[in-house]
């Protein structure tokens, strides 16, 4: 199992690359950066498929490490209240992951020096690059399907939008987490004083920007008050909203060749 240590703003971040070239982040390192007291405080918030364990060789022998997947990293970032979380996400999505997917490793100056001086490293990275190119080829069909769905006419329920977004190989998200993500972006909010707890879209950040729309329900008779009432509006996601959400969730793999 290949483990690579990186540095984010002076803090160590270890990433384990599995046999398929997928990155798994050491949970304790991510927890420190995102302000969690312990790694367990972070991992208990994640879905089961977003976390796991890996055994790595160290100077002291084989060590068992709790890890989180790429999707788990995004979930942890969105749940963090630290301003640093946004900078960490940018570092992950714009620097580390693209380099791993292009080269099979994060090309730090030390890695580049090793490539120059060690033929075995060149062979290893070339093999990883070949595997990644094959993986990219297999991803083209799902990416094309995502584009077709995202460019369709009409709009989507939040549950439908989550399913469409999850067709991007870089994204794994469900209905509830998508609501939470849109709230963190300021697209939706829960109105104060409302008799029914519900979500509404922000006029400035979501409605006017054509990311979300409100679907009004039919009036109904309230048996308790004896009056006709309108139900809370239902939030729908537009194709433009889908594309913007995909970007904020770290979707759009560089190897696919284009942003969706």
Structural descriptors:
45% helix; five-stranded antiparallel sheet; 260 residues; disordered C terminus; 10 helices; alpha+beta; three-stranded antiparallel sheet
Give a verbal description of the structure.
The protein has two domains: 116 residues, no CATH class; 101 residues, no CATH class. The chain is of the alpha+beta class and 260 residues long. Helices cover 45% and strands 21% of the residues. The C terminus is likely disordered. The protein has ten helices and twelve strands. The protein has a five-stranded antiparallel β-sheet. Strands 6-12-9 form a three-stranded antiparallel β-sheet. This is Bro-N domain-containing protein. InterPro entries: Ant_C (IPR005039), BRO_N_domain (IPR003497).
Summarize the structure.
This protein is an alpha+beta fold. It folds into two domains: 2-117, no CATH class; 156-256, no CATH class. The chain is built from ten helices and twelve strands.
Mean pLDDT: 76
Could you spell the SSE succession in H and E letters?
A: EEEHHEEHHHHEHHEEHEEEEH
β-strand percent reads: 15-25%
Helix content: 40-55%
Distance between the termini: 33 Å
Global morphology: elongated
List the helices and strands and how they pair.
Layout: E1 2-8, E2 11-17, E3 23-26, H1 27-33, H2 39-43, E4 51-58, E5 61-68, H3 70-79, H4 84-103, H5 109-117, H6 119-150, E6 156-157, H7 158-165, H8 175-184, E7 188-189, E8 200-201, H9 203-207, E9 212-215, E10 220-222, E11 227-229, E12 234-237, H10 239-248
Antiparallel strand pairs: 1-2, 2-3, 3-5, 4-5, 6-12, 7-8, 9-12, 10-11
Helix pairs in contact: 5-6, 7-8
């Amino acid at each position: 199992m290949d483990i690579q240590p990186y540095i984010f703003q002076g803090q160590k971040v270890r990433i384990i690359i599995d046999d398929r070239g997928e990155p798994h982040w050491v949970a304790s390192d991510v927890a420190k950066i995102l302000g969690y007291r312990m790694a367990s405080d972070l991992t208990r918030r994640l879905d089961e498929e977003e976390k796991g364990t890996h055994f790595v060789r160290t100077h002291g022998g084989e060590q068992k490490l709790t890890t989180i997947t790429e999707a788990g990293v995004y979930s942890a970032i969105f749940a963090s209240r630290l301003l640093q979380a946004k900078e960490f996400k940018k570092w992950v999505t714009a620097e580390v992951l693209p380099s791993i997917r292009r080269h099979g490793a994060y090309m730090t100056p030390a890695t580049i020096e090793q490539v120059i001086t060690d033929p075995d490293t060149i062979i290893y990275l070339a093999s990883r690059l070949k595997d990644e190119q094959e993986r990219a080829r297999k991803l083209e069909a799902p990416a094309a399907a995502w584009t077709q769905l995202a460019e369709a006419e009409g709009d989507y329920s939040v549950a439908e939008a989550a399913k469409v977004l999850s067709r991007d190989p870089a994204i794994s998200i469900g209905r509830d987490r998508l609501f939470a993500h849109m709230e963190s972006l300021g697209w939706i909010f829960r109105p104060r004083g409302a008799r029914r707890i519900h979500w509404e879209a922000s006029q400035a950040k979501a409605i006017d920007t054509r990311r979300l729309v409100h679907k009004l329900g039919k009036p109904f008779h309230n048996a308790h008050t004896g009056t006709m009432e309108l139900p809370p509006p239902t939030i729908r996601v537009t194709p433009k909203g889908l594309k913007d959400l995909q970007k904020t969730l770290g979707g759009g793999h560089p190897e696919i060749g284009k942003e969706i």
